[in-house]
Amino acid sequence: MTLNLSEKEMRVLEELAEKKELSKTGVMKLALRLLQSVDARVDLGSKLFIENEATREKSELVIL
Q: How many structural domains is the chain composed of?
């Protein structure tokens, strides 16, 4: 399989791979599992939020 990524997307992929100590393939597999899990929950009516631990401020992530 071949992925056509922009230079910026490839740079992000490489940065995440280094940060997470994964291969680029590992990052892509992780991203797919995360999207699959989030998508399944959203399909059941759940919402996804990110919370700042210090301020308790919450932001909703909208998945298209």
A: 1
